[in-house]
Specification:
alpha+beta, five-stranded mixed sheet, 5 helices
């Protein structure tokens, strides 16, 4: 067992974990932050995307011990209490979700996209979220949602 400590959604969290525990499982099972989804365990779908030290990361490819000392933001910690982040608002207003399974990962990937490029074109948005799969929407509404959020910034 290894003792780890990290700041998750602005709270210091500690735990004893087997060194083989993936970060996504630490978040979901140890911290009960179930907004981060497990879709494939192979980095292909992006449902597990979170922010590690301000950058989007697929948490199914990181061991929890590797995140020791890091600052983590999950979908639960993205917006202020009682409010919505512009991307969450965009997904609501532009109908950027259907089943919602990919939505947390899509939003977290878009956070990094907009941090790097505050006014992306449609093509740049599609490239920026290309590591995240949606099996429901056909992506146009997701692109619209990200453009909505870019306009709100």
């Amino acid at each position: 067992m290894a003792q780890i400590s990290m700041t998750v959604n602005q709270k210091v969290r500690t735990g004893d974990v087997d060194p083989r525990v993936l970060l996504v499982h630490f978040l979901r099972e140890h911290l009960r932050l179930t907004g981060t989804h497990v879709g494939c365990d192979t980095t292909q779908c992006g449902a597990c995307t979170i922010l590690v030290d301000g950058r989007s990361v697929k948490s199914c490819t990181v061991f929890a011990v590797q995140a020791d000392g890091s600052t983590i933001t999950t979908i639960e910690g993205l917006a202020p209490e009682g409010g919505l982040h512009p991307l969450q608002e965009g997904f609501w207003e532009a109908h950027g979700l259907q089943c919602g399974y990919c939505t947390p990962g899509m939003i977290m990937a878009a956070v990094t996209l907009l941090a790097d490029n505050p006014t992306p074109s449609e093509r740049e948005i599609r490239e920026g979220i290309s590591g995240n799969f949606c099996r429901c929407t056909g992506y146009q509404h997701i692109v619209d949602a990200i453009q909505y959020a870019a306009g709100k910034r």
